[in-house]
């Protein structure tokens, strides 16, 4: 099985295959890419709009080259529907997958994301995915994506907002609202336990999405073609390099 | 007051200023454009993804040139959130505006659109806009957008699906699910009356959106900056011509 | 086009044509009235019950005299459904219209009204209108309607509750919960901006409802007769002066 | 315990104390009235608007004369909120009480009412009462209230619509949508059983509401004064005879 | 009429017929039981699972001995659906009945229960019963069921949490989240009034459920057999003493 | 990793390890059991009540013996919450897991189950799991669980109901409503494609739940202890063999 991961940003070093490889099954072959054109990071609907065309290109090529499934390494699931239409492939977004997993494990959940700007975007996604009754709150750490490498700043803010989500908003699980927060789940879980809230699942979206992609792919499942039909139009003016093959 | 209308497609002749001018207030100055790059028509999420970058470019330029408000002449509201972020301007989408108007006039409504492929897209929009409790059904005429000029075919299908929405699904109002269906509201209303359902509002999205844009613009209203904050990042790799000005 | 506005109260001076005229289109002819019988102001369901018969009388007469549309100058939309049934005319209530406009502009909204007594009444209206998922909170300034002329008291309370709605409840827009609060939108918006929340739409219900009435009326739209059918019974014992004409 | 029942109509003979007495507890004292002014029957929002003032008068007087609780013998619950505000008394509406009872007994329910005109009115009530997820459908027999005495016509239509609600809409219980349908519950239940649907609860709203009024009254329960506060204004111009006493 | 009450616990003295007799109608014959096998008290889903088999046995026997209706004296409604299936009898759970009564009396309500452990259990019940839009909050006093006899501890905690539900969460009514809190309704109501919240209904689940059971039983109502069909299988391995009679 | 599967029935041969082994990862160690005491099959809430105690016993023992995760091989998820409380282990139910997977792949889904008797049970589960907005319909094949081995009967009924779910109810995916229907997914998908509905995901609950259990277990995820706290009471009268160890 081959899974292609794309981080819909142009900045190198924020997402890499090494973030996923430790979680993959031995039989899984991973490939990974970032964008050639698009935003440095994805923190607004404007960023998202400019990330999607090249993201689609990456997925169309990967499918032609034999990918079985794909993961969008971003918590606003940019282009997920279009990519499913364009490739017919199992394309999973980190947001949809993570909140489904949180709902499997807990009565309800909160999301802790990077900035207030994406809160309404995430809220709308949760609504579209049908799980708004399970959403307690969306909080933000107010750390720009390109500053997430500042460990001390991120730890302090993640600890504070995760604890507030659990203590003040009553959340039974926490979902990171940015895949760039990867690696912090254990620390948050321990912090919450130390503060009197043991056993709170903390969902790290990137590895979670990979594992669900493996599971569904092994089951032979793909997106509904009724929900995501193959486009009748195969390309667009100015996007001739992005034309859909006859295969789909 | 100046309102800029963009049809997010590249095919000339499907949408023009003459579709809107008869409805405009005398004080309103209208401008209109279609896309330079993008899909021939918008009938999938894939089409939508490739329409949005140039649509944003059109709105950013219009704002710089003094537009007060903007109308997206399409029923999937492509790029609406991104355009509000990028320009701060009152940008109205035909879908959101039309279903709000339908909800003002009737207990509930059905949408009659072009093809089954966009039904889940429209259903998700209604959900995000908060009005799913008011939605009776979404039906499709199965006429491709580029064939909407075939009057006889469209009339037959529109009559049949609108009647089914009212008679079988119980709708109290009908909303056209494609702005390309413009001009058919009176005929449908009369057909429904002749079939025993008088006084059913039939919402023609394009003029409806224009009139609400005028009304809100005259009230000095603009989108919430909390919902649609100005992007902190002003451009993206490969989209340098689309950079946001300092003004926003 | 002629629009008839009625404030469903008997106290002169609280609502007048001059509150609306500055917002009207040049082509719009406005008429305005208050009640001959009914409550001094409308602050309970009891008040509302006693306001509706004379309000209906006013609208029936206005329709007979040629009105094209009507506005109920009150945020509980008293008699709106009955007036639509009785006249077939485009009758808009300030509550329904204002929250639809707020939903067009923002991810969600709060209402700031006069007293706690009307909070459940407004909450039920929002639910019936289908927008409860967009409602963040309803707050009250605890200023009786007949004291709204006390500018200092009102300003202080409106500032405090609007800020609390935005800061504590997270609202993306604010809707006044009483048409008698007219004229305060700009001040509140500036206050919110000064407190760190720029670009929050503040909806002043009375002018907003007038502008939407103009827009829908120019589009030739009227309420659904399936939702608001003409009553089969034309009058009632003790209300002979309120008999419906043959015309409807 | 004394319970006052009012049918909010002026036509004698449609509702009487004998409709309720067989169901009352031995300790319950029943009184009953119809309106002096108002509609002949209640089949529109227009009818409802003209029924409420005299209905309030009846309840206010009954309270002053010692009534402990009150029943509105009508399925649109006219004036229920206002009557609770005006009297502080346990005032139950047939609609709210009946659908709550249906929800206690069955997974979901349908309502079978008199005419299509009241379908949206009832739908809105179910929504306000919070039980729309339990509502399968609302059907109508298209028999005017004043013709409900035509047994054969009513039986045929009630049988047909109740069966359709259960067989086609999947309802697990049936609620009559007009208190004037009283007495038909056993016949409908037997008809449904004969058609292959045994054990479907059929709720007859008038006696059901009486029994719940007795139960809640014996428990000493009254409406929440936070939901239905005593009006600060005690009367209205033209309704001086309807002034609220100091007692409330 | 004979009503059988079972407290699904094995500890004697926590629930007795004397808790119900003062509320019963003179014509009602009450019987009461606790479990022979099961948990000492019911404070988790684990407890609930082990309470249900013997609870069913009690109800099956009671039905065979002529009971007309049954009350589950517990706020998680353990075994309610199974008991309705097994006996066809009117079996009411304290949770469903109490929240329906609260919804009849108030715009919304909060539940005050014993411990945080049952909060998600109660939240799920409210959701299944269709009333989640009416639920403001669920709070807990953190007093184990077997300590509820400690009056001072319970009073202090009940006062604090009920007041917080009303003042901080905005509840219009309070429902006890454990039938073991019986007898405290008047004290809480007076405490809330003293704190500035007069007229807040406080629902004591045990007597409330009894009275509604009487009312529905007198109306001849029973659970829908479509919702709760008689089991086709009459017993289970290891539960031969619990076999269903031919009668059902 | 060791996953313990229990089918909550006493009939041998309906569920076995060979149903799961072909889907397991090479690293996964599977164990499997049925009940010693409980119903022959699980087709009512009554059956469910009598299955749960022994099911809990099986899971508690499995946990003590080192199981990492558990699967309930049944579509009503009997005892799932209690088992999570009692063991702290990742216990997945087939219903919750399957509908989450369906929601990941399609806009909405229908369930096709064995008999009408379990339809309201499944409907309530979907509601509790928060996905009722995604549920199109629940249909039944009316084949008792113990007759599911009758291939021809099952094929005919499954084909008919699956097609009706897609064609008449508009479902975008189909979920089997009984784990005993295992093995039919490919045939149904092909049948739907042949009837004009290609690419409809058909979810086979048993293998799907196993694969998600593997994925979540490899991620180190367990149920929220806030949603499913360890019971404070460790056993119950008559269930001494089922006492919880000190370890949890």
TrEMBL record, chains A, B, C, D, E, F:
A GO MF label: amino-acid racemase activity
Protein name per Swiss-Prot or TrEMBL: Hydrogenase expression protein HupH
The family this protein is said to belong to: Belongs to the HyuE racemase family.
Organism name: Amnibacterium flavum
InterPro entries (alphabetical): Asp/Glu/hydantoin_racemase, Hydantoin_racemase-like, Iso_Racemase_Enz_sf
């Amino acid at each position: 099985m081959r899974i292609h991961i794309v981080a819909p940003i142009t900045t190198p070093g924020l997402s890499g295959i090494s973030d996923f490889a430790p979680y993959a099954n031995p039989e899984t072959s991973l490939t990974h890419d970032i964008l050639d054109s698009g935003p440095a990071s994805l923190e607004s609907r404007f960023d998202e709009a400019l990330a999607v065309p090249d993201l689609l290109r990456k997925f169309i090529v990967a499918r032609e080259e034999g990918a079985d499934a794909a993961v969008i390494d971003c918590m606003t699931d940019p282009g997920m529907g279009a990519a499913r239409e364009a490739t017919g492939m199992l394309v999973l977004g980190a947001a949809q997958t993570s909140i489904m997993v949180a709902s499997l494990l807990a009565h309800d959940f909160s999301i802790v994301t990077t900035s207030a700007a994406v809160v309404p975007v995430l809220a709308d996604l949760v609504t579209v995915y049908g799980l708004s009754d399970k959403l307690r709150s969306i909080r933000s750490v107010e750390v720009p994506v390109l500053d997430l490498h500042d460990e001390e700043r991120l730890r302090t803010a993640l600890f504070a907002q995760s604890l507030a989500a659990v203590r003040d908003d009553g959340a039974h699980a926490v979902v990171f609202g940015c895949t760039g927060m990867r690696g912090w789940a254990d620390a948050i879980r321990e912090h919450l336990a130390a503060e009197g809230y043991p056993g709170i699942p903390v969902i790290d979206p990137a590895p979670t999405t990979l594992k669900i992609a493996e599971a569904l792919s092994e089951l032979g499942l793909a997106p509904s073609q009724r929900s995501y039909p193959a486009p009748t139009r195969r390309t667009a003016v100015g996007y001739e390099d992005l034309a859909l093959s006859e295969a789909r």
